[in-house]
Design brief:
437 residues, alpha/beta, 17 helices
Length: 437
């Protein structure tokens, strides 16, 4: 299965002064798979150590942490010769053995010739509990759920993607728009979790897709009980289950009172941090001004919460595949929430975008997303239909004199006086389109 991150892994392998690599990402986004594939295709051999499944390995990291000693012991234990530059050493669920995490510093300083990649689904949670992290001694990458582009390629539509990235800002033929729109509906059903996409590719059966999605959601709930502090587990579940209702509101600013009546931020702060650290939720802060640097204008008291994945959000919302594919009323009413979730997922995977915000005025104007490239602030408004009214976007542009604004809708691709209309199915290519603005 094609993942764009593979190119970044290859670049890491060739990087001068390469340090151990930490691959971050939520559980079941495909971290272990891509590291195995990276090892299979780019190295002579691979040795994978899963610290969650082999707890007795912790003793190898006790005492003095000498990388060569560790490598020799791991090689002896698994009957393999671990060769510098030729063997990929994978530490999976590395957060389970804090000393293994600490050892990355010494691999970086004393044994950089060994290629070490680590993955940890709950690494952020572990670090907040006080585990030492080798700051400045590792390279990091983040793996997101599959983007819509990766979903298209998985469905053998590489030529379609190549065409989009070669045609500039020419209007997209209607037949291609319709084909992309049909695939977008499928993507809103399957989402980007690799297991769900694989089930669709293999069976073309939505019941099999949903079975995989429910398994993933069940695994997440088990993580709450297994890894989270016992006292916050009920609040974790309440907050997690409130996400669909939060996003269904027209004003999607997060409201603690929707979790349960009388809920206060103080009660749920630790539970929210746990869900964010585990990668299961995405937090989008409000900015008070559309100027660089956006981070300087964060309003930390106002934020929206989005899900990790649009397909999992659909299942949690109890929205059937037929409702999306046939355009039933329940889908029409919830379409805006799914469209925003989908758009944010694509934005988070675009290179060069560090943070995504939203903006609202003191009155009623609100722009769904605001982000920045290297030199400019770009507002993005997401429309789930062909409605081209964009009053909030116009107000934002007038107020902050932004040279480029983006409207994602079901209308065709075009640039008109600094307003770039991008068809919803092509948000994944927005980095390419904005070059022309």
């Amino acid at each position: 299965m094609y993942r764009k991150l593979m190119q970044e892994l290859i670049a890491w392998r060739e990087k001068p002064g390469r340090q151990p690599l930490m691959l971050k990402g939520a559980r079941q986004v495909g971290k272990t798979w891509i590291l195995r594939e990276f090892g299979r295709t780019c190295f002579d051999d691979v040795l994978e150590i899963n610290f969650e499944q082999a707890g007795n390995l912790a003793e190898l990291f006790e005492g003095t942490i000498d990388p060569v000693r560790i490598v020799n012991m791991l090689g002896a234990l698994h009957g393999k010769k671990i060769l510098p530059h030729k063997t990929l050493l994978i530490f999976d669920e590395v957060q389970e053995v804090p000393r293994a995490l600490t050892s990355l510093k010494y691999f970086s300083e004393n044994a950089p010739e060994y290629a070490v990649c680590c993955a940890g689904s709950l690494l952020g949670v572990t670090l907040h509990s006080g585990t030492s992290f080798p700051v400045g001694k590792i390279d990091t990458l983040l793996l997101e759920p599959m983007t819509f582009e990766e979903f298209l390629i998985a469905n053998e539509e590489q030529a379609l993607c190549d065409y989009i990235l070669s045609a500039g800002l020419a209007p997209v033929p209607q037949a291609i728009i319709e084909k992309l729109s049909d695939y977008l509906k499928l993507y809103m059903v399957t989402g980007g979790m690799p297991a769900a996409v694989s089930a669709w590719i293999a069976t073309k059966d939505f019941s099999k897709v949903e079975e995989k999605q429910r398994d993933i959601l069940q695994d997440y709930a088990q993580d709450f009980s297994k890894h989270a502090p016992e006292n916050i587990v009920p609040r974790l579940l309440h907050l997690w289950n409130s996400v669909p209702s939060q996003l269904a509101r027209e004003n999607k600013k997060f409201v603690y009172g929707l979790i349960r009546e009388g809920a206060r931020a103080r009660e749920y702060e630790e539970a929210l941090l746990w869900l964010l650290d585990s990668g299961l939720l995405r937090r989008v802060y409000r900015v008070t001004k559309g100027a660089l640097p956006l981070k300087a204008y964060e309003d930390l008291k106002a934020f929206k919460l989005y899900h990790l994945d649009v397909g999992l959000l659909r299942v949690m919302s109890e929205l059937s595949p037929a409702a999306i594919l046939d355009g039933s009323r329940v889908f029409e009413e919830f379409k805006g929430a799914l469209a925003e979730q989908y758009a944010l997922q694509q934005l988070c995977a675009l290179p060069g975008i560090r943070s995504v915000y939203y903006w609202s005025s003191e009155a009623t104007a609100e722009v769904d997303f605001v982000f920045a490239d290297e030199t400019r602030v770009i507002p993005l408004e997401v429309k789930a239909n062909e409605n081209l009214q964009a009053k909030s976007l116009r107000l934002f542009r007038e107020k902050y004199q932004t040279p480029l604004a983006v409207r994602a809708s079901l209308s065709n691709l075009r640039l008109d006086q600094g307003l770039l209309n991008v068809p919803l199915p092509l948000i994944w290519a927005m980095g390419y389109f904005t070059r022309f603005g």
